[in-house]
Amino acid sequence: MIPYLQVEDISKSFGDLVLFQDIRFAVGKDQRVGLIARNGAGKTTLLKIIAGIESKDSGSIVWQNDLRVGYLDQNPILDTSRSIIENVFASGDEKGEAIFAYQHAMASHSKSEMQHALELMDKHSAWDLDVKARQILTQLKISNLEQSVGTLSGGQQKRVALAAALINEPDFLILDEPTNHLDLDMVEWLEDFLKNSRITLLMVTHDRFFLNRVCTDIIELDQKELFWYKGNYAYYIEKRQERIEARSAQVEKASNLYRRELDWMRRSPPARTTKAKYRIDAFYDLRSKATQRFSNSNVRINVGAARLGKKILEAKGLEKSFGDLVILKDFSYTFNRFERLGIVGDNGTGKSTFLNVITQAIPADKGVIEVGETVVFGYYRQEGMKIREDMKVIDVAREVAEVVTLGDGKTLSVSQFLNMFLFAPEVQNAYVHKLSGGEKRRLYLLTILMRSPNFLILDEPTNDLDIETLNVLETYLESFPGVVLAVSHDRHFLEKVVDGLLIFEGNGDISGFPGSYTDYYDWKKEQQKLEQQAQKAAEPKAKPKAKSSSDSKPRKLTYAERKEMEKLSDEIESLENEKAEIESAINSGTLPHDELIGQSNRIAELIHLLDTKGERWLELMEIDENGG
User: Fold this and answer.
1) In this structure, is residue 153 part of a structural domain?
2) Mutual orientation of helices 154-167 and 184-196 as an angle, nearest 10°?
3) DSSP letters of 98-127?
4) How is residue 141 annotated by DSSP?
5) How far is Cα 55 from Cα 52, in angstroms, rounded to an integer?
6) Is residue 428 assigned to a domain?
7) 365: which residues sit within 8 A by CB, 6+ positions away?
8) Nearest to 207 by CA among 494, 446, 459
9) Is 530 within a domain?
10) Residue 108 CA, distance from chain mean position
């Protein structure tokens, strides 16, 4: 394995808070490594140190020479004064610069710019990359390349930054939460793209399906220690549990011995002579082992919910539009007790707006919403809550309630409940501004659950929450005695929490699916397969190819294949001639601007056609030569 990255004895602290100390690991060529840790443990900080964006206290980062490294920040900072095209293609890379010049020339009115851009595209052989860039931008639903980045939402900017990272074809790519703000189709496409590329990866993501399908290795940062697992997420879960059980057994053994030694220390003061000093030293070592704590995500919470009556919520004939954008079109639905619905659909189809309409935060244009008298909404908004940065964590929680009532009627103090929600005592007394983004999200979720809602509305709750918190939330929702309505792109979360789906298809069309996300995914793939088969059946059938008389003998070209080969030769010659004519016309400088743009686009199409037809011609030629 060729070592691309070596992290050697890296340490980082912020005042008294030690994130990690003397950690070391290496990432080799073709490895795709997922980094897992609790929020606040320093995942993003570690990635920034490796990317050279943030300083380290000690240690070294060693890269292989001449390695092209890409980095996607969790909250990327783009140049908002420039367009999408300028942010995506102006990378400093020769091919990227050539594509940028070409795209910019197409949007400008300068013939001289177009001529120069075409020369650059040919010089740096950038046509293939241009085709690939268009494919990536299309998959990420980025179309208007001239649009100013300053007019985009945070999620759209994240997609622009992701497109730039992928298009620039780095050897080593660092990704911080790449699936945030992507819809499900985009996430599935990104999985396939990364699996099929030769890019080496180091990434942080809470998407467990993504980790399982993309990663070859998992590293976990737990209690300032680093653990490496050579396998995907499923392998990591299995081996992590074995590690926890082994450590638990060691701690239990140390605890038993500690109790005996503690008894000796208490009842035998006269025995503490020089001869017994070794035993006294061993006692203090033993105490540190017996009292050590380690991360264990098998935490359960059972917050009580307000009593829910028979009538929940009924929507009748809802309609909502913003200008020409239709969000809801004659939507009616009656929510039932204990219903758990997931909401899926492309970005921009109005999922968040729908949540605001049914909670009456935004008025519907038409229709009626009837809410039962006993309904208590708990609304986790995608944009989060505004928390005073100068408040302590425990004071934020106390503003909601002094005690929390559990489902079994028992009560917990705010401090006990915070601890149950993975806020250790030392963190409870820390100021909010010291929390990571994920920890603030966890605090926000906690304040909602403390109000004992019986109708939970969750808008992208998995964004920025660590896997440990997600496990806690999912376990809670499994036994939640009320209604759950959740918008999420996290397939693992949907699979564990919901038993039905509302699918936002765009233009106000909403369909229902009675089943889990996996059921829906399998059904959707089957529908796509049937559509493809129907299209194939509608196409004219080609004549069957002649079979060879023996598997061991090379076959000859069939008559149809020979005719196809002759036709391809003529087509390739014609395409080459057309390409030469267009290049000559462009270089002449006499074409009107509109025609210049059209002809430039045609060149890209011709190159793609020549590649495709050339590959087929070579395939037939090989058969012909082998068949003699």
Assistant:
1) yes
2) 20
3) HHHHHHHHHHSS-HHHHHHHHHHHHHTT-H
4) T
5) 7
6) yes
7) 319, 320, 321
8) 494
9) no
10) 35
Whether 472 and 609 share a structural domain: no
Contact 236, 243 (CB under 8 A): no
* Bridging pattern class, strands 483-487 and 340-345: parallel
Report the distance separating Cα 18 and Cα 466, nearest Å: 19
Range of the domain at 592: 559-627
The answer on 216 and 137 residing in a single domain is: yes
Same domain for 191 and 336, yes or no, is no
Same domain? 494 vs 568: no
17-28 and 32-37 beta bridge pairing? unpaired
Distance CA 127, CA 67 (A): 23
Cβ-proximal residues to 214 (8 Å cutoff; 6+ apart), any chain: 32, 34, 191, 194, 195, 201
| Helix, strand, coil percentages in the chain from 3-state DSSP, rounded to 5 | 45, 20, 30
CB atoms within 10 A of CB 601: 11
Alpha-carbon gap, residue 18 to 29, rounded angstroms: 31
Residue 297 lies inside a defined structural domain of this protein: no
Nearest by Cα to 39 from 489, 416, 463, 451: 463
The reply to whether 449 and 338 lie within a common domain is yes
The enclosing domain of 319 has a CATH number of 3.40.50.300
The predicted structure's pLDDT at residue 560: 75
- As given in the structure block, the two tokens for residue 80 are 């908002």
Q: Tokens 């949907």 — which residue?
A: 494
Residue 616 to residue 619: CA distance in whole angstroms: 5
342 and 490 in one domain? yes
As a whole number of angstroms, the distance between CA 533 and CA 276 comes to 83
167: phi then psi, degrees, rounded to nearest 5? -65, -35
Scanning the structure block, which residue is given the tokens 């082998």?
A: 626
Is the separation of the CB atoms in 422 and 38 below 8 Å? yes
**Residue where a domain terminates, one of 214, 236, 258:** 236
Residues of the chain with confidence (pLDDT) below 50: 271-272, 274-275, 294-299, 548-551
User: What is the enclosing helix (H) or strand (E) of 27?
Assistant: strand 17-28
| Beta carbons of 34 and 219 less than 8 angstroms apart | yes
Q: Which of 577, 576, 584 is nearest to 613 (CA)?
A: 576
pLDDT at residue number 549: 46
Picking from 483, 509, 525, the residue at the C-terminal end of a domain is: 525
Q: Are residues 579 and 516 in the same domain?
A: no
Q: Report the amino acid identity of residue 90.
A: A
Give the 3-state secondary structure of 191-236: HHHHHHCCCEEEEECCCHHHHHHHCCEEEEEECCEEEEECCCHHHH
Is 56 in contact with 160 (CB distance < 8 Å)?
Answer: no
**C-alpha closest to that of 10 among 273, 219, 301:** 219
Number of domains into which the chain is organized: 4
**Gap between the Cα atoms of 63 and 7, Å rounded:** 9
d(CA 350, CA 509): 10
Q: Specify whether 325 is located in the same domain as 422.
A: yes
Query: What phi and psi values does residue 202 have, to the nearest 5 degrees?
Result: -135, 120
State the DSSP code for 300: -
* Cα gap 296→468, rounded to integer Å: 8
**Token code pair at residue 66:** 């001449």
Note the pLDDT of residue 275.
Answer: 43
Terminal CA-CA length for the chain: 43
